[in-house]
Write a structure and sequence with these properties.
CATH topology: Neuraminidase
Radius of gyration: 19 Å
Number of domains: 1
Strand order of the largest sheet: 11-12-13-14-18-19
CATH superfamily: TolB, C-terminal domain
Number of strands: 27
Structural class: mainly beta
CATH class: Mainly Beta
Largest sheet: 6 strands, mixed
Distance between the termini: 52 Å
């Protein structure tokens, strides 16, 4: 059976090349690696019940996100450069959703800032291919995939900001994207895209031995709720976060997805094994799932309901916990463990207008974790630090 062979190849490659730890450099010995796919990393790694959000008491302005060339504003997603190649390791990559007039969905720029106060903004890329730029995924080698809500495309830029390739159908209205690389030599590095029109997750799968740079584009998950909104009011699957953990000689990975319509957070086990169209179908209400190959990869509900209130953005903390940002009921951040235990909430601004649409965490431990967020009210990048 072709599907079985493909999955077996992924597992075999992980075993052969498991010479370095994945993601957060966590290694867990297990005697039966055949059960890894069914369990998922969050089922094996104990929760860290330390609230990082409570420690983040200092709010620091990093810099303006208004593009110096065309005046684009309305910062949304944030990603971090993980190497020095074109970009510098640790630099922050930010998308602008609005144009200079403040028109939602007309921004066409991606910006770069250093992770320190009073950082000077630099234009990384400008293109109509990413009109309504609402997300940017930065790979391990600093290629940036910008998602355009209005253009309906995801575009690949090299580390210098040059446009290299654009991806369309089955992508229709990309709402978020995320890089997925577990860190093992020769392991695939994929891009996951959330679509706010179809309520689906689309995977750009790159074959590691290929030099062509071409990707297989597959809608691997479908059924998430969408609200058919426009501009800043759009809700759908978003807040994609990728976590990987070395389990024995395998790299086990989990994909987290925020559902702003149903107020849920969903975890997909062994996400790298998603290979086929609509392998996972989210049932109405967002709490149950039909999985085509549940022994290999499936979804489960992490959390549902209050204090989640139309969340869009999320961040994966170094300890494996999550922080999500609500877009209703005030600008409130919610911290929770991978098993759904709420650790803390923090209201950044009591304004009824949502203005936190991008989050990213940095650090290597609980003691040095920092959280960056975009503020569309002031058009700035901010940092919550300890």
């Amino acid at each position: 059976m072709p599907t079985f062979n493909n999955r077996a190849l992924i597992l075999t490659a992980g075993a052969l090349f498991a010479t370095s730890a994945c993601g957060g450099n966590t290694t867990v010995p297990v005697s039966d690696t055949s059960q890894v796919s069914a369990l998922g990393a969050s089922s094996i790694i104990p929760d860290d019940n330390t609230s990082i959000l409570k420690k983040l008491t200092k709010d620091v302005r990093i810099g303006s996100t208004v593009d110096p060339k065309n005046g684009d504003m309305g910062p949304r997603a944030i990603s971090v450069a993980r190497s020095t190649f074109g970009l510098k390791k640790g630099q922050l990559v930010v998308c602008n959703f609005d144009d200079a007039a403040g028109t939602a969905g007309k921004g066409t720029t991606i910006e770069v800032l250093d992770p320190r106060p009073h950082s000077t903004l630099r234009t990384f890329a400008q293109s109509r291919k990413i009109e309504g730029c609402d997300s940017d995924a930065t790979t391990a080698t600093n290629y940036v995939y910008g998602a355009g809500l209005s253009s309906g495309r995801v575009s690949k830029f090299d580390p210098t900001g040059a446009l290299k390739k654009t991806y369309g159908s089955p992508i229709q209205v990309p709402f978020d994207d995320a890089d997925a690389f577990c860190g093992l030599p020769y392991a695939p590095e994929d891009i996951y895209i959330a679509d706010s029109k179809t309520g689906s997750i689309i995977k750009l799968a790159f074959i590691p031995v290929s030099r062509s740079g071409h990707a297989k584009v597959t809608q691997v998950i479908t059924g998430f709720g969408v609200n058919k909104g426009s501009g800043w009011s759009v809700l759908g699957p978003s807040g994609i976060q990728y976590n990987s953990t070395r389990i024995g000689t395998l790299c086990n990975d989990t994909l987290y997805i925020v559902d702003g319509v149903d107020n849920t957070i969903v975890a997909v086990s062994t996400a790298s094994q998603l290979l086929e169209k609509d392998e996972i179908v989210v049932q109405p209400g967002g709490k149950r799932f039909r999985c085509l190959h549940p022994k290999h990869t499936c979804a489960k509900l992490v959390y549902s309901g209050s204090p989640l209130d139309a969340p869009v953005a999320s961040a994966l903390l170094p300890n494996g916990n999550l922080i999500v940002a609500n877009t209703k009921g005030g600008n409130t951040l919610v911290e929770l463990t991978p098993t759904g235990k709420i650790l803390d909430t923090k209201t950044i601004d009591t304004s009824p207008t949502a203005h936190i649409f991008g989050l990213v965490a940095t650090g290597t431990s609980d003691s040095d974790t920092a959280l960056f967020y975009t503020d569309t009210k002031t058009n700035t990048l901010q940092e919550l630090e300890q």
